[in-house]
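Page 47, continued from p. 46.
Same chain as before, 79 aa.
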Amino acid sequence: MSAVKESLRETIELLSEEEALQTLEFAQRLRDTSISDSFRRLASDPTFKIPTRGVSKRRANPIEGKGIPASQLLVEERR
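Result:
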């Protein structure tokens, strides 16, 4: 167990019941806000499999296409 978790465990032992309840509610809100509403909705759909651990972001390589890139067209259009 990490030193931070061990310290938290020791601190929790010193809390009153009311303080422990407030801490538990805070921890649950903290956990709930880390999961987006979209992931929650998708998780209930059997079509999708949502990873239980964090989602890693991978760098995507752009596809080579013909003509002017869409990003450049958008920039020019907004000028």
